[in-house]
User: Fold these one by one.
Assistant:
Number 1:
Amino acid sequence: MKSTLSSLTGLRSASSWFELYAAFSTFMMLLRTAINDLIPSQVRSFITTKLESFFSNIYQSNNTASLTINRIWDESSRNNELYQAVCNYLPSRVSQSYKSLKIGKLDDCKDLMFAVDATEEVADEFEGIKFTWMLDEGSSEKERRDLDKLAFKLSFDEKHRKIAMEKYIPHVLKTYEDFKSERKILKLNSWSNGYWGENELSHPATFETLGLDPELKQRIIDDLKRFLKRKEMYKRVGKPWKRGYLLYGPPGTGKSSLIAAMANYLKFDVYDLDLNSVYSNSDLMNAMRSTTRRSIIVLEDIDCNKEVNARTLKDEENSDCDYTQDAKVEDIKVERFTLSGLLNCVDGLWSSHGEERIIIFTTNHVEKIDPALLRPGRMDMHINLSFLKAKAFRILASNYFDIRDKHPLFEQIEELLEKTEFTPAEVAEQLMRNEDPDIAFEALLKFLSEVDMKREVKKGSESSNSEN
């Protein structure tokens, strides 16, 4: 009897559940029909997306790992190379498909520039794994103005941490290196306010176009080739893999063009360090440590810096540099860095911070440089960029007018160049004034003759005055 009652109760319970399910299904069908009829498809899609995102965030909140990639690595203002790699990597991945990108054309760049919009996440897929990037510009207006505070945040599922660290990040770096190598985009960096500002190096100078004595040019090229091949030799003898050059000569003799030609030949970025913007030994050390490998560090007009020449201030009477004779050595060393600090960066313990670097000093007055800077190991090769002579003039003539054979006026022009001192800049300025080579060479010959005559008159006048 009891078992019969239990069976009847079970049947009624099952029947009730079935009736409830049927009623719920009918309700859902009516609700779906009402929603489809009353709510536009765009609104339905928006609601669905928000719900999916909400529940997805709840699920991922306990399973998401993140990495922060700051623009500046530490308090010493050293640039984070990975940050620069990400800046170039992300636009190359999403420029053809992403909805929100910053785009611009800079004065010193040939191509359009793309950058990630800080208001939107950027998704990248690698080996079937989703990686999400976000540019963090800071929360306050002050932080957004401080470029040092910029950072990228990379988010991914915690279970893919090993792939992110061992494969994805190296993939980003390698893509960046390949991108630079393929496009051969060289950078010109300048030190200001504690960090390097970056621009594209667009100077077209090459060794083929330099108005330089062919023999000197070849010696420079051979020296650069030896430097590139001697990594193991430098390591074996226990020396940092670097090379120092001193470029000296009158203004207009092509020091800047030679630096650009060396950069284009080596495919090295250039770091132009104005010592007047360096305020202490630690600031100088930070600037040098923030440079990358395969780079040229340029210290221009080294003779014009008060701190470097603190021991030779007595020679400043005829200097064209911007400092005064009454400066005191004590004041100079207190205000900025010291000569010993510079020597340590160039050829001391501080100089061993990186590899494959070229350090170039330039000056118009080599006699004013402290002898401590001139010795091998600091300035290994001294290059005298002097006045234009016949062989170098032929290169300029070829550059401007594609004339490789002898021109009727070459002999007279070259005779004046050998006799009187003219810089390549002076001659190049004359050649640029006319597009017709015959007219240009005639005008150049006239210019050289007039200058030579004025100089002869001046010498004669000075000679007469000295005799009297």
Number 2:
Amino acid sequence: MTLPESKDLTHLFSDETRARKPSPLKTCIHLFNDPNIIFLGGGLPMSDYFPWDNLSVDSPIPPFTKGIGASIDSRNNDILKAELKKNEKLHDGDIPLARALQYGFSAGQPELMNFLREHTTIIHNMQYKDWDVVATTGNTNAWESTLRVFCNRGDVILAEAHSFSSSLAAAQAQGVITFPVPIDEHGIIPSKLAQILDNWTEGAPKPKLLYTIPTGQNPTGSSLSDERKEEIYEIAQKHDFIIIEDEPYYFLQVGRYIKDLGERAKLETDVRPTHEKFLQSLAKTFLSIDTEGRVIRMDSFSKVLAPGTRLGWITGSKRLLKAYISLHEMTIQAPAGFTQAMVSSTLNKWGQSGYLDWLICLRHEYLLKRNHAIDCLFKYIPDTSIFTINPPIAGMFFTVNIDASAHPEFKTKFDSDPTKVEQHIYDTVISNGVLVVPGIWFITDGETTPAQPKESKEISNPNIVFFRGTFAAVAPEKLENGIKRFADVLKKEFALN
């Protein structure tokens, strides 16, 4: 089947993007590596002056039969300074250190990007042909770049009613207004999204972007179903906006929580499904249903390798990605050479099969962590209608809903204000030696003249607040102790001792 070209969506570019001219110096940087060119045109230092001759990294060996700890079954990866050193040869996928540490390749080093292109074809059933990938320094950088590529000050974007606070702050800092889209325990409600856009104030510019975290959403832990993604994509086509798919938790899909230990045991011992079974178990992505190039997907190694790599990538249509490359040439230049060399060497030695093995093992570890966290929540938090425990099916966060109006001092000390109860519980929990984060920190705030239909503001109980916790950060015994401290505060505050 011949795939179509992407749709031209460059009319959604920002004024900054339209005004930016390519750097003349960047147009010739590729000639630096041409052996037939004596390169005198740029301020590049000689690699002889770099004080590192090689980079040596120990990494575990697929298929990780003894686990995914780096100290087990480890193998040494040597990344050399130059390709033509006598008696030395680079492995396939290794980036010469002399090149990795030099200027150039703002889109990402070829060896790494080739791996990611192949990875993309395995994970996503791409529906158009002119797509590509571009390296980033993680999804935070990718999102801030996206705002600059598409948005002017005063523009409106759509975001989940509760969303990642740093992403909201980045928009606010650039003068971009975030407009909340109602969500439930399964993420964005497509009918509410359609209602907002169908009733948008006549003559007012519609949003260019929808920012969403579809899998293991931060902070709510919710995950969009395949059916909802299809509906949302059709709304994007109708109203001509781009979907920004922020997916750092995509491979941490652990399935529904099962209380019954007997039923659960089979899942917990199925450590190593086949690659085919693993791929079939993954949720459909917005990217995989995109026929027009109106999805920008942001991926990161932060949650699957390490946050300190500061390395990720975006996938989208080539004509849109050109604007990112032009921006990055003026801002980040490129992700760190050390990181690209190290990650590329590791992934290419593992191969696509080995990387899938890694992701399978990692998902299993998160399954065990999720189950332990939810077990502890049910064990320690009182079984009452005041509290609702929300087991996630993906990601690294759990949430607990609390009916603030049930607090004995709700109408007196807290003036019937649920946010005051929320702040008080947060302060009290901190004083008892545990940190969980209040939901109020993640509210998408910033309505503008386009009138939001009244129905989309309604929630079943305005006195419900929630707290977000993570099961990823600490060992199981500490996690249980932390949840117990949290539960003890709730019991005392709501007079349930």
